[in-house]
Specification:
single chain, alpha+beta, Jelly Rolls, seven-stranded antiparallel β-sheet, four-stranded antiparallel β-sheet, 10 helices, 13 strands, binds ligand 6CS, binds fe (iii) ion
Length: about 300
């Protein structure tokens, strides 16, 4: 194990800190693959996210939404550890490992419209670190508090560096009323080291309602004073790509309109997981791939063979 101080240490003391990012946002100058234009790459690099509108057709979205709804009602799926319920109820909040549970989502993970963006930004081949569907039903869907995904993946999963990105494929319209993803532009340039000591098996609680690995109010206020908050409202079929360290969250859904998204987390094959920090036990494989780091084959290549 390295004796060097971890540049992104967090949850090891009672103080918080703001640490400048030590990693690129776009690797290899954005030249590894051609998917986003140079203007789009610049916007992603500056803001830490980009929204691409109408990437998937209505028919594609409908098929994926039907699949997610079917799975959320299938007792054989609901009883899996992969299915996480809302705090205080049996309603399904998230289903993890979607890219292995669903052939349709397995294809989505390798879809050229997603994977080439990930390859271009991360400057290498990529694999799926985590995938999931989030369901935020009308009236009762609960919030996700502000967080940086990288903070959790670094501390709880041992992801070494900031070289991963998420994409959220919108399966319903995300409007200002149904709890859309909110992001803090520019926040990916700062790492917020969080207070508190992580309890054992923290994921059982955090995936319902996260309380450790969330920013303190002063740091959050500073990030928002610098960058503001953007609600990523867009129609079904749009995709939000965001850096692993972009501060984000979403409010509850008291509107009648359901909000459902499928998330894919791509990690660089050069950034595979090490041991978790602070002596924590590794989380289960359905939250963080650590057995096999196989580069994903884009679907077009697989089909043309
Ligand atoms: O614990 C995790 O890995 C995750 N939790 C949240 C709230 N967002 C990203 C990721 O799925
Ligand atoms: Fe997140």
């Amino acid at each position: 194990m390295s004796t060097l101080q971890d540049v992104y240490s967090s949850r090891d003391a009672y103080t918080s800190a703001i640490i400048a990012r030590q990693d690129p946002v776009v690797y290899a100058g954005g030249g590894y693959a051609q998917a986003l234009s140079s203007e789009q790459i610049d916007a992603y690099s500056r803001d830490g996210f980009i929204v691409l509108h109408n990437v998937f057709s209505q028919a594609e979205v409908q098929a994926m939404l039907d699949e997610v709804k079917r799975m959320a009602e299938d007792p054989a799926v609901v009883k899996l550890d992969e299915a996480v319920t809302e705090p205080g109820s049996d309603a399904v909040r998230s289903i993890f490992r979607m890219h292995e549970l669903s052939p349709r989502v397995s294809d989505l993970a390798r879809d050229p419209r997603l994977i080439h963006v990930a390859r271009q930004v991360l400057g290498s081949e990529v694999y799926i670190h985590q995938s999931r569907a989030n369901l935020k039903p009308g009236f009762t869907g609960k919030e996700f508090y502000w967080h940086s995904d990288f903070e959790t993946w670094h501390i709880e999963d041992g992801m070494p560096r900031m070289r991963a990105l998420s994409c959220s494929v919108l399966l319903t319209d995300n409007n200002e009323c149904n709890g859309p993803l909110m992001l803090v532009p520019g926040s990916h340039q700062q790492f917020i080291a969080c207070q508190g000591v992580t309890p054992d098996n923290h994921y059982k609680q955090s995936l319902k309602k996260q309380e450790f690995g969330v920013p303190d109010p002063v740091s959050l206020q500073l990030l928002v004073e610098q960058g503001g908050i953007r609600a990523a409202t867009a129609q079904a079929g749009s995709v939000i790509f965001f850096d692993c360290n972009t501060m984000h969250g979403s409010a509850s859904n008291i509107s009648p309109w359901a909000r459902a998204n499928v998330f894919m987390v791509y990690n660089s094959i050069e950034n595979t997981l090490e041991v978790p920090k602070n002596g924590l036990k590794p989380r289960p494989g359905y939250l963080a791939t650590r057995q096999q780091f196989v580069p994903l084959e884009p679907l077009e290549a697989a089909v043309s063979v």
